[in-house]
Amino acid sequence: MPLINMKCDELIPERGKHIYVHDPENPVVPACNIKTIPGDMTERGCAFAGARGVIGGPIKDIICMVHAPVGCAWYTWGTRRNLSDLHAWALPGRLSNVAFNRRYCVVTDMQERDVVFGGAKKLQASCLEAFRLFPEVRGMIIFTTCTTGLIGDDVKAVARQVEKEVGKPVFTSESPGCSGVSQSKGHHDFNIQFYQQVNALRARRPELKMQDEEKTPYDICLIGEYNMDWDLAAIRPLFERIGVRIAAVFSGNERIENLIKMLDVKLNVVHCQRSAEYIAKMIQDGFETPFIRVSLYGIGQTCDALRQTAAFFGLQERAEQVIAEETARVEKALAFYRSRLAGKRIAVYVGGPRVWHWIRLLEELDMEVVAGACTFAHEDDYQKINDKLKGQVLIIDSPNEFEIEEMLDTLKPDLFLTGMKEKYLGRKMGIPTVNSHSYEKGPYEGFAGMVNFARDIYQGIYAPAWRFQHGLPASREEAPPCA
Amino acid sequence: MRLNEIPIDGVPYDRLKVEKIPASPAYAPRDPELVPAAGRTLVINPDRICMPIGAMWAVLGVHRAIPFVQGAQGCTTYARYTFSRIFKEPATIATASFHEDAAVFGGRRNLLEGLRNLVVRYWPEVIGIATTCSSEIMGDDLVSFVKEARIKIGGEIGAEKMDRIAMVIINTPSFAGSHVDGYDRAAKAFVDTLATGRDTPDRRVNIIPGLLYPGDIREIRHLLEEMEIEATVLFDISDTLDAPLAPPQEIPYYPPGGTTLQEIRGMGNALATFALQPAAGAGGARSLERRLGVPAVVGLTPVGVDATDALLQNLSRITGREIPASLKIERGRLIDALADTFHHTMMKRVAIFGDPDTVTGVARFVCELGMTPVAVAPGTPTKTFEQEMDGIFAGYRELFLDTPKVFNGGDLFEFEEYLKTLPRLDLIIGNSKGIDISRELEVPLVRVGFPIYDRFGYQKRPIVGYRGAELLLYEIVNSILDFRYPDDRTQQL
């Protein structure tokens, strides 16, 4: 039976349903997307984080109004590296230091009296003030949290009222932190609510749809792409060069008006298939717009993505040309990194999809995945992981910190690809890490991004720091060699 | 093939220039009616976080202690993320993992199961249970839940083992205060729960440092060692959040150090309790005084000459220990540094923001440098802030170029909009949230206080004590030189 229980979970047998050693002959899908065991050192976040941090945060010309005490808003202020290019004016002739979506943290600051008497009035006043203070914004999304979800403020009514008064679209994302098992619930909530509200808005105001003169036969929407560390700088030109037009990105560096128009494209190209495939499916059902699933990490997968997209529009020839040029451009650098990284053993622990996105990428560098773990993956993610794995690999669903430690301790990988919270734990155990959520020095997507990723992995493994980790040598002869 | 033969970067990070697109055609000032925080409902760019993270900070300073957060996962995960961003260290914190069912039925089951799972896997010595908005709104009765949990877990692991694990409940609903208050409540909850007697009075002192960094706590310990005073530092993050890399690392990860349970239990026996930050820790000191008669010495945050003098004098007064020559030499070196640098600090305008006690401490020090604090803004309002500022400014007003603007609470949006109206500003002192305003106004930022996540090393470099003040002074004066002085005028300073 490939399902196993780890040593640290001896007294918590239910964890055994979540952990398996992949056997290509007998693949299993673990228990996943279910409740976290209380008392866990989980890496999971809350539903609010998924909605506000992941999908709402990257939209560049709106206000993300967090209806909560300040903390929930503060934590989502300029943290995830969802960069964008739209800047407010700081002073005459000078634009703000960082882009608008990361420059301001806007919150209703719920206080005790608001909790007792309700916060709807406060929210309405706050929304109107925000539109007055930031006339440059084109819309707003109101996010609820545990506090405002539990007291049951009618935020939809407030949104309708504010929209009527200011004439700009006001959406709501009701996804309180405690409403789901992980941030994945927030992704799902956001997709559904946003899709429904955009449809309703388009019915009310048809002029917001994409007008015929703007449409081209090659319009696509890139769904589930959040412009981490300017991934779009590496990706967007590739699609443009094969002749398609990215009419909208859901939601990296995107304007709200383009997201309202995203229902009018010819094809949806879905990158993050965990956080955003929902909306692609709803668009397919509602508008008969097909979608394709792609990965934009690694050379092979990026090539596949371009080929698939090009095939849909009959642009194969141009795609092959772009692929030939781009692969030639990065060939030498990747050959170097491959020569240094071949045979290295890697553990990957990310949210969900990146585990399967990266298996092939790591193979392209001749590295071996020895363990994988996902914070919020669902069944389909584990199927995709299993499809890509060739050997016996330990896979943990929603691990707690102790399981991660046991995994690192027993498998001793050469590198641990993981996020902000766990990377320091890996380092304490003498295992190099690369921040795989917001990246170390991205972008990591596409051809050029692959070189950045390989470079950061190379730096991780070959840093001289690791030569000194085993303590003060007993004598000079035992000292590590100088490079 | 060698590295210099290949193009190392795909998209060279430093050359990835993204053209900024203006959000509107031209600059227009923000609606002046809505700029002052008092004139609006909305909060923009708060310089304070939620109450539970202050409590978690405190618990992380206790030896083999784990914070347990009675709330949704985000309440824990975001805080862990924040600690890791600041300290570049792991922060082990458990969550009750509230999902939909908890929102309906309350958090009893989550607490019972959660504490049990935490105990049987991690065997902590102390569990600090911090509540959150959701558990407080649902009205979780933590006291009876914890009682029930102890009996249940005791039944499984044995009463003796259970007795060795202390549990402290810290009520931290975020709608009632900030991280500063959360730390303060943790200080009170720890001493109230654990320091219950004054049976064998000793010659130790208690230090509640407040939201100070590991470097600061080490500096405080240095002062105490020089004075030969034994002390309990509650909460001591100097090792727990600044641990060495020296594998093999035992698992599960417990960082070295932290205040021991035994030390905390003995706090009632001390000569006195020094709360170095009135807003973050005085609650604990006052409770020990009220309940057990341990005198409380609250403030001053020991930044700069006068406040460090006050700390040492108070320590000396209470313990009867002389201030040693070694510390007088350190003081002399600081004064020497003041004398060497004042041509570059005097009559410079500085704006200060951050946690209230960091602001008062730094404001007092910049006055000692002959600078003018043109604006001071504590992210968390306190009842005494304005009065404290008046007290500090009283001795220096005749040296000021302008009348300082004293905020109390408000937000960073108000603060930065105010700074934009000033005809001249030379320096901003505050946390990492000041970087945008610093870049936009082209005024250097000296990073101090909580949180600093966008540079390395600040959490290790003290600002307290004479030596800390000297380091802070160099940071201040060098920032001014870097920013304002042509290089041909810095050949002789």
What does this structure look like?
The complex is a heterodimer of chains A (483) and B (493). Chain A has 483 residues and is an alpha/beta fold. Chain A folds into three domains: 161 residues, 3-Layer(aba) Sandwich (Rossmann fold); 103 residues, Nitrogenase molybdenum iron protein domain (Rossmann fold); 147 residues, Nitrogenase molybdenum iron protein domain (Rossmann fold, 3-Layer(aba) Sandwich), CATH 3.40.50.1980. Chain A is built from 18 helices and 17 strands. In chain A, strand 14, helix 15 and strand 15 form a beta-alpha-beta unit. In chain A, helix 8 packs parallel to helix 11, helix 12 runs antiparallel to helix 13 and helix 13 packs parallel to helix 18. The longest helix of chain A has 26 residues. Chain B is α/β, with parallel strands linked by helices. Chain B contains 19 helices and 15 strands. In chain B, the strands form three sheets. Chain B has a five-stranded parallel beta sheet, with helices on both faces. Chain B has a four-stranded parallel beta sheet with strand order 4-3-5-6, with helices on both faces. Chain B starts with 20 loop residues before the first strand and ends in a 9-residue tail after the last helix. Chains A and B meet through helix 1, helix 2, strand 3, strand 4 and strand 5 of A and strand 1, strand 2, helix 1, helix 2 and strand 4 of B.
A few lines on this structure:
The complex is a heterodimer of chains A (483) and B (493). With 483 residues, chain A is α/β, with parallel strands linked by helices.
